[in-house]
Specification:
- The chain is α/β, with parallel strands linked by helices.
- Helix content is 47%, strand content 19%.
- It has one domain: D-Maltodextrin-Binding Protein, domain 2 (3-Layer(aba) Sandwich), CATH 3.40.190.
- Strand 5, helix 8 and strand 6 form a beta-alpha-beta unit.
- Helix 2 packs antiparallel against helix 12.
- The longest helix has 35 residues.
- The chain starts with a helix and ends with a helix.
Length: 333
């Protein structure tokens, strides 16, 4: 009888599993807070891997109360899409860069993505942790309903990929260069003499392949990870931006969270930037070697000529606070 009873119980359990009746064991609890983290980068980017690391650390430190689900490669939309989701109160963490942030709350913050602004990541960190940027973050929170969790993510020097090199600004004159749809990129490439052409990142590969644009620009890690070297084989090493990005969350949703979870998210966002930024710097040579193996050749830009050409960018924002460029230079010191 006992064997028969066990067999019957086993058969009932198997049937219940098959039709989806069985639920998770009582000791496996669902997360109290489920947050989506969306970005446009491929999965082999160091910053994506950092996002995955942060999700795991937050889960462990919250003892399972918080689950961060990471969605790479525009799976839940473009950068602008994720900003809007966060601003509307959705449980979403988004990648944010100063150019886009300027559209959301504080025009001054766009300068953090200015051409040839920083010589090193150490210089950038001084500015990003300064009271100057702290005030910009507060304006972004009040006006844009977005809270910056951290600006501490070095994204790498940005370079230009095309089918020919552009060693001087004269060489890039009138070339259609894909830029993200924000004003800092547009004004920078105008100053170079190029024709800035906004495209969402998901459209860049086809845009290059089909001749919609002549060139695109991004860090080496992204050029490699997005496989743009399959359609264009020459990279001009301009280093025109030393790109800074961060993580942000909607203020409305952030305020709905318990204080300990707010603190955990802010601390882990900062810690994660400290972890990944040195890795990004160390890997730049590795990305260059991998691109070379993929058939890419490199052209060294006359960076001083590009620097002089793009100084005009800093005069293209009449609504900036007077003397902003000088304040940033002072904050570096």
């Amino acid at each position: 009888m006992r064997k028969s009873g066990l067999k019957s119980a086993g058969a009932i359990l198997a049937l219940a599993v098959a039709v989806g009746v069985v639920t998770a064991p009582a000791h496996v609890q669902a997360a109290e807070f489920v947050i989506k983290l969306g970005h446009v980068l491929p999965t082999n980017e160091p910053i994506h891997q950092a996002n995955e690391r942060m999700a795991q650390r937050v889960k462990e430190k919250s003892k399972g109360r918080v689950e961060i689900q990471v969605f790479p490669a525009s799976q839940i939309g473009s950068n602008r899409d994720t900003y809007e989701q966060a601003r509307m109160g959705a449980p979403v963490i988004c990648h944010i860069d100063p150019g886009y942030a300027a559209e959301l709350g504080d025009l001054d913050i766009a300068i953090m993505n200015g051409p040839f602004l920083f010589e090193s990541w150490d210089q950038a960190k001084k500015v990003l942790s300064s009271p100057l940027v702290g005030a910009m973050n507060e304006n972004l929170r009040k006006k844009g309903n977005i809270r910056v969790l951290s600006w501490g993510y070095y994204f790498g020097q940005r370079h230009i990929i095309s089918d020919k090199g552009y060693p001087t600004p004269a060489d890039i004159k009138n070339k259609k260069v894909r830029v993200p749809p924000n004003v800092m990129w547009v004004e920078t490439f105008k100053a170079m003499g190029a024709v800035p052409t906004p495209l969402q990142w998901a459209e860049v590969y086809q845009g290059l392949a089909q001749g919609v644009v002549d060139a695109a620009e991004a860090p080496l890690s992204t050029l490699l990870g997005s496989k743009l070297h399959e359609v264009k084989k020459v990279i001009t090493l301009t280093g025109h931006f030393k790109a800074v990005v961060g993580l942000a969350i909607g203020e409305q949703y952030f305020q709905s969270l318990p204080k300990d979870i707010q603190q955990l998210l802010a601390e882990e966002a900062e810690e994660n930037g400290r972890w990944v930024s040195p890795i990004t710097i160390q890997k730049e040579d590795e990305f260059k070697q991998a691109l070379a193996k993929g058939g890419v050749t490199f052209t060294q830009a006359d960076t001083e000529a590009y620097r002089k050409a793009t100084l005009a960018t800093y005069k293209a924002f009449p609504k900036w606070t007077p003397g902003l460029y000088e304040k940033v230079q002072a904050a570096m010191k």
